[in-house]
């Protein structure tokens, strides 16, 4: 990209999220003759140009949307990053594939009754969870110009045929109604992938374990007393967040045996009678964070063997429910029913300190994904909302200070936030 403002300034090409350097067209221009911070960062992604101001009046307090992607017929319910693609799904059953870096719609696919509640990707497969209590498996066909083709649904027909004749394989789901234990009896709300397995959580309060290699259901766990809203897996532990106000940790009794069943390792207690809507964990599995319906973000520290957890932070993050969260390095992002996204820096003790707030959505923020690739001293954040839009943000990493919001009603509640170090 040419620099008309400073012809002598060197040009540094950065890799855009999810793309190799050979296809990257993102650049940032700075001057090596001026040691002061640049007045602005200018990005160019093919035919889209953005400029993020770093003026004294604005600084890093303001976050502007780099792009607003519209096309869903319903509220955006979940997101996933897959190679050079962004996948977004909605309550209107449709799944849209956006290609980077031009952020144009690449293709659209979807099938089934009811909205798409969750999606995960692994290799060339995409797993989508639906309101009709089924999981659909899609495969990217390179021979058909990257068409996403439906290859199976869970439970598979083979799994059904192997179990439907035996009465012991049926469980009571409600009065006078039984189902095979491999079936979910209500909407599947969340999915997680780890070590060759797919985990599904449902409003039917159960956690099911599926083997990716043959798509067989291995386990069904009566996990909670209310709907399961969130799942995450790390370091051999699966965490399930529920409307019963608890996050439960599940692990295998014998890590050396792939077929060993999962058992309860611990319970992370949230606020009494307050739903926990999402759960995330750091890459090393050491820290676990949960977002609740009373607007709090809570954090726990696990011991070395992941056999017990202690609470390390409890922060009033939003005025309304925290619906989703994501982690990228030392930063935690929280999306809320109050239509805002909180940007938090994680401290060494596990506490979180707010460094910014993003506003722009016209509806509750339902899902978040962040790219770990560094772009211009920041990272790319993707947010989906009930306003039917997907927004793309560039978030600067400014670790030198926290953001002071003017006349924010959140300040009074944050003063009472508990951080245990």
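^ Assign residues to that structure.
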């Amino acid at each position: 990209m040419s620099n008309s403002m400073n012809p002598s300034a060197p040009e540094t090409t950065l890799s855009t999220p999810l793309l190799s350097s050979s296809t990257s067209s993102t650049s940032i221009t700075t001057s090596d003759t001026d040691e002061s911070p640049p007045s602005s960062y200018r990005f160019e992604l093919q035919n889209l140009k953005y400029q993020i101001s770093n003026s004294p009046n604005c600084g890093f307090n303001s976050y502007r949307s780099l792009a607003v992607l519209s096309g869903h017929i319903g509220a955006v319910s979940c997101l996933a990053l897959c190679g050079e693609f962004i996948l977004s799904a909605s309550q209107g059953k449709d799944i849209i594939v956006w290609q980077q870096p031009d952020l144009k719609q690449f293709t659209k696919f979807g099938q089934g009754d009811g909205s798409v509640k969750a999606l995960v990707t692994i290799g060339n497969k995409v797993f989508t969870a639906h309101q009709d209590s089924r999981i659909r498996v899609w495969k990217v066909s390179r021979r058909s110009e990257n068409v996403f083709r439906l290859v199976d649904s869970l439970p598979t027909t083979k799994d059904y045929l192997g179990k439907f004749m035996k009465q012991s394989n049926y469980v009571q789901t409600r009065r006078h109604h039984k189902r095979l234990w491999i079936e979910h009896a209500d909407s599947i709300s969340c999915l997680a992938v780890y070590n060759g397995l797919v985990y599904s959580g449902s409003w039917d309060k159960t956690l099911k374990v599926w083997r990716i290699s043959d798509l067989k259901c291995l386990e069904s766990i009566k996990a909670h007393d209310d709907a399961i809203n969130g799942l995450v897996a790390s370091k051999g532990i699966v965490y399930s967040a529920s409307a019963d106000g608890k996050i439960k940790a599940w692990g295998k009794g014998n890590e050396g045996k792939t077929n060993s069943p999962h058992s309860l390792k611990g319970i992370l207690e949230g606020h009494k009678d307050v739903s926990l809507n999402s759960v995330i964990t750091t890459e090393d599995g050491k820290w676990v964070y949960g977002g609740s319906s009373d607007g709090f973000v809570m954090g726990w520290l696990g011991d070395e063997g992941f056999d017990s957890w202690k609470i390390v932070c409890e922060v009033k993050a939003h005025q309304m429910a925290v619906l989703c969260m994501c982690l990228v390095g030392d930063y935690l992002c929280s999306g809320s029913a109050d239509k805002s996204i909180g940007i938090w820096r994680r401290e060494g003790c596990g506490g979180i300190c707010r460094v910014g707030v993003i506003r722009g959505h016209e509806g509750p923020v339902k899902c978040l994904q962040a790219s770990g690739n560094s772009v211009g001293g920041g990272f790319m954040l993707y947010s989906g909302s009930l306003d039917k839009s997907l927004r793309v943000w560039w978030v600067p990493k400014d670790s030198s200070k926290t953001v002071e919001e003017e006349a924010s009603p959140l300040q009074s509640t944050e003063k009472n936030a508990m951080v245990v170090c």
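Confidence is low (pLDDT under 50) at residues 1-61, 399-421.
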